[in-house]
Amino acid sequence: MSSQGSWLAGGACALAVSLAAVASQQTRSISGSVRRPDNDLPAAQTEVRIESVNSTLTSDSGEFTFPLLPPLKVGFPVKFHVAGLVIVDPCNAERGRTYLPDPEAEPIAIKVLPSREALESSDSLRCVMIERASKIRPPKSGSPKGRGASSSGSLLVLPERREFARPAGPTRLHYSEDRLQVLIDVAYHPKLFQKVRESLGENTPPAEDEILLEQAKELGVSPEQLSSALAKWTKSVKDPYDKGLAALYEQRYAEASRYISASIPSVPGTFLERYVPLAFAEYQQGHYSAAEAYLRKVLAVHSDDPILLGALGAVLDGQAKYSEAEPLFKRALAIDEKTLGPEHPSVAADVGNLARLYLERDGYAEAEPLFKRALAIDEKEFGPEHPSVAANLTDLASVYRLQGRFAEAEPLLMRALAIDERVFGPEHLILAAVLGNLGWLYTVQGRYAEAEPFLKRALTIDEKTFGPEHPNVAADLKFLAQLYSDLGKYAEAERLFKRALAVDEKTLGPEHPDTGAVLNDLGSMVYEAQGRHAEAQSLLERALGIFEKALGPEHPRLAMVLVNLAEVNRAQGRYAEAEALLKRALPIDEKAFGAEDLQVARDLKNLAELYGAQGKYSEAESLQKRALAIEEKVLGGDSPGVAMDLNNLGVLYFHLGKYSKAEALYTRALVIAEKALGPDRPEVATVLDSVAELYDAQGKYADAEPLFKRALAIFEREVGPDKPEVATELGNLAKLYCHAGNYAEVKPLFRRALAIDEKTFGPDYNDLADVAKDLADCLHKVRRDVEAKDYEDQAAKIREKRKQ
Prior knowledge:
Layout: E1 6-7, E2 13-21, E3 28-35, E4 43-44, E5 47-50, E6 54-57, E7 63-67, E8 77-82, E9 86-89, E10 91-92, E11 94-95, E12 97-99, E13 108-113, H1 115-118, H2 122-133, H3 181-186, H4 190-199, H5 210-219, H6 223-236, H7 240-249, H8 253-263, H9 275-284, H10 288-299, H11 306-318, H12 322-340, H13 345-360, H14 364-382, H15 387-402, H16 406-424, H17 429-444, H18 448-466, H19 471-486, H20 490-507, H21 513-527, H22 533-551, H23 556-571, H24 575-593, H25 598-613, H26 617-635, H27 640-655, H28 659-677, H29 682-697, H30 701-718, H31 724-740, H32 746-761, H33 766-781, H34 785-803
Antiparallel strand pairs: 1-4, 2-3, 2-13, 3-7, 5-6, 5-8, 8-12, 9-13, 10-11
Helix pairs in contact: 2-7, 4-6, 7-8, 8-9, 9-10, 10-11, 11-12, 12-13, 13-14, 14-15, 15-16, 16-17, 17-18, 18-19, 19-20, 19-21, 20-21, 21-22, 22-23, 23-24, 24-25, 25-26, 26-27, 27-28, 27-29, 28-29, 29-30, 30-31, 31-32, 31-33, 32-33, 33-34
């Protein structure tokens, strides 16, 4: 007998389910029947299954019975499946999912349709929207983490630490056993649907729509029919709730919030679950507090729902409420492990959510085994060449990248790219995520020539898929802009940041946190990097206001902007203002991440840098030591970040006159940096410069000269001959020659340094005054006093203007 059963009267049917107390030994059972909703005719011999529990066949009259045994219990969410048919209602977060009612409650009517008829069912299409809106995931972008250690005499500029996220919606393509799962995968890409509708006709759909083809084949319909059904439904709905769901489909989140909110009565009752898509709409607008409140309303009634627990955890994660999010993710994981088993794909998703939370807090030791577990589950469930496996590889690569384990991260991303290209083709939107992550991996290593084509390819794919004005495109633009900022191509970086800002303001609104993130990056990485202090401060203050309004006064995104505002003030000699800003940022990060987090270490280093700039070396020393201890504990003693910390602590000892201590730290830093990064990296050049300055101060000019020259050659080769790092090194080498009495070499080096800084930052850049003064001092030594006076005047004018 076929498990798919037969219809007594054909067509659609409905499944009536109730909980009844069975007299025998007081055992309760789940009982029900499969019936046609319009004429109540039953379906015979049809397999009915509760996911991961059991299955049974209906009788000739369409009836069935399940024993109510653990893990089933009243109020617990379960998911029904009916073989060969599509469940169109109930749809509580997922198709066929509902909460088991009390035995005395009314039966649950579960409507089921053949797949072709499901395309014409409003209930079925509504379920697509509900299911998508229940998948609130932790944010993959907008983390307030900085990039690394400063050794250049200025505070750390903190861009948004973004991870390239795969497109919204489930990526585990075979996760659900429902015949209409494809709708969920593509429901929120209307422009992609439009492209499919325009390109199909009588032709074979393009390779990038392989998923759509696969699912349409399973349904027995064409991709065009599938996409047209959704488009038709969004245009025809009249009910406010359906209008809200349609607005979600088209990413009109503010409109969605208004419609869905209006559809919920003052006493929600059976409408309680509508708060979930309402929370999704608020979350997409950056209204995290509102999203949290709505989800808590539902969880107050359904406290054991792992989907809702995960959704609330994601919203709390977005607010940096990590200590509140963690137990929710853990509870969702425990429930799914108990009910579905330890190797179910839902468990892999729960594990991934928890791992990403730890990653946000620099908990690499906790995150790595969790990502590896998720990878193992999905490899076993789907095979080694599945897109879910590619997503897990990308997550694991992020753990390695953030620890500076670049050699381990790169092959994982390459494997992920190969999987996605093989499954989707070279231009599918999924590829933009892994391409972006590869580009970012190369960017943080300074491998800019390799990074640029990956970032550009990701941008091209997203523009082709979504059009030029989409948040995904804005994110791509921001990454590419940061690359150009690192290269000193500020005009190009400014153009891209401004375009990203315009897109985010138009699509997300001027008060959205992502808009604030662009303002932060444009202000700190372009304007402040060029000494355009007033422009930088204006943008950073606007970003600060956005974050305070959207996220509250203690969110770590505020700390990020406070650090960048501190740098604006430090660069202008406003040390008291800079100190106050940094002291406000530090407790925010300590509260959000804990006292031994890398972000806290960076805050401590920023304060130490500020005190060092004022000659307060003893105060700076204690802060730098605490930062070093944190980074050694989190990253290990052989990481590049620790090498830079050792160098910075050595600089403090150098200024305190403790030369032997400084040299020992420099030596250790150089060994670590060369081993971890290779001999020709800018970080190595930074340490070489420190050692050379020490030898210069000790009068060991012959020892210092080759180190300065080696550092200069590295900077010229790795960052470019006209970059500020080169100017600094030229000035240091010139001062060495001045001290050694090799005056003929001095002026050409100083003049080249001045030209680079003036070209990069403009004629009024503060550091130009220092270079001009150093050159003047050396000219006085050879009694070229008239020439020296010109440079002294130049330095005085710059410093006078800075005070204004």
